[in-house]
Amino acid sequence: MDRRSYLSALGVVAAGSLAGCSGNGSGDGGSDGEESDGSEPDGADTDGSDTVGVTVETVTEGLEHPWGVAFLPDGKRLLVTERDAGRLSLVDRESGEREPLGGTPEVYAGGQGGLLDVAVHPGFPDEPWVYLTYSATNDTGASGTHLGRGRLDPGAARLSSFELLHAAEPFVESDGHYGSRVVFGTDGAAYLTVGDRQFKNFGPDHVAQNTTNELGATLRLAPDGSVPDDNPFLEDPDVEDTIFSYGHRNPQSMAVHPETGELWQAEHGERDGDEINVLERGGNYGWPVATYACEYGTDDPVGDRPDEREEFVEPVHYWECGSGGFPPSGAAFYDGEAFPAWRGDLFLGNLAGEYLGRFAVDGRSVEEREPLLTDRGWRIRAIESAPGNGGLHVAIDGDPAPIVRLVPE
Asked: Can you tell me the mean pLDDT for 144-170?
């Protein structure tokens, strides 16, 4: 397939401090970025010293709401999921040729649900497992976040031996807030995000604060779906054994820091209140008791400020109510060779704001820098850093939609 190339000049926007815990706000947002008011993100890197020229190339196009991307270890091929179609494809990075794979599970493609994230076993190809997250229903029609895996055998255009590994409980009658990012940590465990499913109370507490269920949580599983014997709450009868962290609303972004091995996660607030967090073992991230979000349609805080409640883990970066927010989806730390100035930076997709966010990270200090892809009208769904000098690959949420890559100008 022919590739179309575009030039993108970075930093050509009004200078000023970008949204965050100390800024004035940028982008449109709120909720899960599923709707946009059409306003443009503002702000830029104040000195422009690390802006670089970028070429945006189309890798493949004509996709139906791509949601997850993952490279095979050879760096030449990537797996792409399409949410509504429930389709998994293998894409040649250079030619753009796309091969749909059989053997995928039946999914529930309502609302925010469908075939969602994809990850490759860290021991691939010796462990030839491809992991998928997806929404599916039970016999009553209620739906839940699922994790499954199948074998990707060389030369076979399908996943074989697909098996369900885990379904987050309880299933609810909602088609939103599935969370559904999955990554492998440096410890070899699979970490799965599950949103609060827009479901308020489980017993006397909000689901994200009631640890006898798996909603509003990050789950930690062994590669075969079993519960690791070193999970943080195994000895606590009031917490599900799978839970690693809780108090989340709808985390759709997660990535492993290439140097520290820490898990970084971004999640949607209600009206603004979007957050970037570093996951701590057994941590409670506050939703909805402690959050910087406001209630929809008002300036009324949803809960207390996280910095006023010591029992909750504070975000390392956040967007306060009234800032415009940063509804995030997809995350990647850049560790390639094509952009030396970006090494170690965190990239997050902005949905309603329609741009790619770049964040300079120093320890747990985070600063948003100049936005990228601001002039395309693209909702950014997923990001993946290609091995070597392959650039940064970005999935656009739309129908039809492309996968593009950013390479040096």
From this structure: 95
- CA-based nearest residue to 119, from 180, 196, 65: 180
**Distance of CA 348 to CAs 85, 170, 314, Å?**
24, 29, 19
- The values of phi and psi at residue 381, to 5°, are -100, -40
pLDDT digit string, tens, across residues 256-274: 999 999 999 999 999 999 9
More confident residue, 59 or 21: 59
Mean pLDDT across the chain: 89
What is the rounded CA–CA span in Å between residue 71 and residue 221? Answer: 22
CA distance 228 to 205: 27
Q: Is 350 helix (H, G, I), strand (E, B) or coil?
A: strand
Residue 166 has a pLDDT of: 98
**CA triple 250-309-180, angle to 5 deg:** 15
Q: Which CATH superfamily is domain 5-408 in?
A: TolB, C-terminal domain (2.120.10.30)
Q: Which of 274, 240, 295 is nearest to 349 (CA)?
A: 274
3-state secondary structure 183-210: EECCCCCEEEEECCCCCCEECCEECCCC
Percent of the chain, pLDDT > 70?
A: 88
Q: What is the amino acid identity at position 350?
A: N
At 387 the pLDDT is: 86
* Contact (Cβ atoms closer than 8 angstroms) between residue 247 and residue 275: no
Helix (H, G, I), strand (E, B) or coil at 342: helix
Contact 107, 113 (CB under 8 A): yes
The residues that bridge with 87 in the sheet, in sequence order, are 82
Distance CA 370, CA 284 (A): 31
146 catalytic? Reply is no
Is residue 181 a contact partner of residue 254, using CB atoms and an 8 Å limit? yes
Nearest to 115 by CA among 31, 168, 178: 178
In Å, what is the CA distance from 225 to each residue of 187, 189, 274?
Answer: 15, 9, 30
Q: Angle at CA 383, nearest 5°, toward 382 and 389?
A: 155
- This model's pTM is above 0.70: yes
Helix (H, G, I), strand (E, B) or coil at 243: strand
Token digits for 172? 């609810």
CB 79 within 8 A of CB 120: yes
Structure tokens at 165: 């590994």
Q: How many CB atoms neighbour CB 50 within 10 A?
A: 17
Catalytic residue among 65, 146, 166, 177: 177
